[in-house]
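Q: Joint fold for the lines below.
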Amino acid sequence: MPKEGILKKREVDKMTNLENYVQAFCETLEVSEEQLTGLKYQDVPLWDSVGHMNLIARLEEVFDIMMDTDDIIDFSSFEKGKEILGNNYDVVF
Amino acid sequence: MSYEELLDMKPYSLNREDKHRFLTNRLVELTMKHKEGCSEYSAILNSIGFRVDEIHSYEQLPFLPVRLFKELDLRSVNEENIVKTMTSSGTSGQAVSKIYLDRATASYQQKTMVKIVSEFTGTGRLPMIIVDCPSVVQNRQMFSARGAGILGFSILGSKKMYALDDDMKLNVDELKLFIENHKGERILLFGFTFMIWQHFYKELLRLKDEGITFDLSNAILIHGGGWKKLINESVSQEVFFKSMNDVCGLSDIHDYYGMVEQTGCIYMQCECGNLHASIYSDVIVRDPFDFSVCEKGKRGIIQVVSAIPESYPGHSLLTEDEGEIMGEDDCPCGRKGKYFRIFGRLKNAEIRGCSDIYAEMFNK
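A: Joint structure:
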């Protein structure tokens, strides 16, 4: 594949990953996209400990990964989650 | 010392002297924090003439009877910082304990529980069978002890299934499929002792007679919640163990002791059958007549201390359970710390109203 093609694919992956990530939040926590920036654990009623495990289950399914317990506990905000998925599970954003 | 620093250490790694030093520092710090933040707690300390400069060991710290959390709303942080309220399990009409958690305390509880249980299950998450019904975690505003236990443990599960439906009937086909799908993998089974016996074991036994069997020889069972009902049915720990083994091949079975008032600091039963205190908490056995500390091998009332609670004054509590210390730092399983056993609830020892008990405990 020409170099340009690879770059393009990576860009497409990034886009889809972000879309999927956003969608997982919006659907499991019942929030709108506008609420996501800066959103932290316990900020909205559905992001409680039950909602947290639902969110993690969803992300694991979408990205086909299995997260460590430490990462599940540290997953404390919308941004922190991206960082964890990016650093530890090769999900590019 | 902060709790985060304690979390960086292995749960069963400290010997008596080191643990004593760490725990005394942290528990004195918590006592002062709650004295400052909780007016009721402060009044209790004042009424007994508590002086922090007289404390050289956490064994000297005051302890509240657990039932005080049923009678009073005790918290040490502002209401707006409370993110979760947990309640004890109780029969209808009975008062329940209310435990108020802020972000930090809730997070310490979860981290601590994972650290302790991972020593037994390994660091990876396992396919998990929850021997309970899904509706138990549905009321999200108020967590019962049962729901909180399940939720706390469910972080250790990868794929999860509830073995019972909301009528407490075994999901036979689903269970069969789940075990089949995870053949060769280690499975984590979690539930409360009585429910496992009543709704899981008895059903497996019945199915076995019909020729339907389940192989759980590869699984680890973690169960807790007390033996009271089973003892009435003459089911001892040995009988429980052997019956589970006979019906589905389970042999890796761990009871645990813990309470909603000190969630996170659970006491796991080791391979030798002993309950163990981790570095995050401790048990002290007290003489029922003068509340002095009992020597190893002497029965008494269990006091529990926990380094976790920052949002409510529950770091030092007198339970209504009877037990004995069996030893410290020398269990054959290799884990450091005290190991002990529980005999159950105190007989006829309804601990009286909070004011009476303080008088009796502290005016010595």
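Q: Anything notable?
A: The mean pLDDT of chain B is 90. DSSP finds eleven helices and 15 strands in chain B.
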